[in-house]
DNA sequence: GCCAACGTTGGC
DNA sequence: GCCAACGTTGGC
């Protein structure tokens, strides 16, 4: 059973468009143990939502894990985890934080419960609901 | 730009 | 090992 994830990025630092331009991005710089555990649990080809924090406040697309379980190249001690990701597709419509908060089917989502967690897990049910709110994946 | 919430650190 | 202080994150 694959698991689902959500990764937050501040778009003025690293946006969806930056990831698309790069074709493959390394998700590093995470310095939070819970987020690190999530990163370390990610498996090849699992999917994650890409969320814009601080600005935008919305889920813009879906990425796939292209390389699992690497050590963070920005960490000189090598004790933090990272993964590589590739963009899969944008959502037809971005799903805003307000929509997620307002949806009665998404009450326990880690994104809301642990607002400051930069890498959160999404349950399969929540994943389905959010995809539906976003009108599915955009074509092309 | 402000403030609340959370995680981490350090003194005891 | 506890708890207060501090720093950082992120929504507003």
Walk me through this protein's architecture.
The protein has 140 residues and is α+β, with helices and mostly antiparallel strands. The protein has a single domain, classed as ph1033 like fold (Roll), CATH 3.10.590. The protein is built from five helices and six strands; from the N terminus they run E-H-E-H-E-E-E-H-H-E-H. It has helices at 16-22, 33-41, 97-102, 110-113, 124-133, and strands at 4-9, 25-27, 47-52, 58-71, 81-96, 119-122. A six-stranded mixed β-sheet has the order 2-5-4-3-1-6. A hairpin with a 5-residue loop joins strand 3 and strand 4. The longest helix is centred in the C-terminal third of the chain and has 10 residues, at 124-133. The radius of gyration is 14 Å and the shape is globular. The mean pLDDT is 92. The structure holds a DNA duplex (12 and 12 nucleotides).
Name of the level-1 CATH class:
Alpha Beta
Q: What count of domains describes the coordinates? A: 1
CATH superfamily placement: ph1033 like domains
Radius of gyration: 14 Å
Assign the CATH topology: ph1033 like fold
SSE succession: EHEHEEEHHEH
The CATH architecture can be given as Roll
The number of E-state strands comes to 6
> Helical residue percent?
25-40%
What quaternary form is this? single chain
Number of separate helices: 5
Percent in strands: 35-45%
Terminal CA distance reads 27 Å
Trace the largest sheet across and list its strands.
2-5-4-3-1-6
Describe the biggest sheet? Answer: 6 strands, mixed
The class by helix and strand makeup works out as alpha+beta
